């Protein structure tokens, strides 16, 4: 998964404006307590980040 697809998916669920705030401020346990933005900066794969976002947002299995 490319980073652009990751952002498209997050935007689709949270809305473009709020998704950026959420990604900057919400710490995800599955990412070692990092935010989405921190995980991207640290080189975590977009797929791993999406899995953490999917779990945090409690999205349905079809969204995985």
User: Which stretches are poorly predicted, pLDDT < 50 over at least 5 residues?
Assistant: none
Net shape: globular
Q: Distance between termini? A: 12 Å
Beta-strand fraction estimate: under 5%
Description:
This protein is mainly α and 64 residues long. It is globular and about 25 Å long. The N and C termini lie close together (12 Å). The model has no long low-confidence stretch (mean pLDDT 96).
Characteristics of this structure?
64 residues, 61% helix, mainly alpha
Short summary:
By secondary structure, the protein is mainly α. The protein contains four helices and no strands.
List the helices and strands and how they pair.
Elements: H1 3-14, H2 16-25, H3 36-41, H4 46-56
Helix pairs in contact: 1-2, 1-4
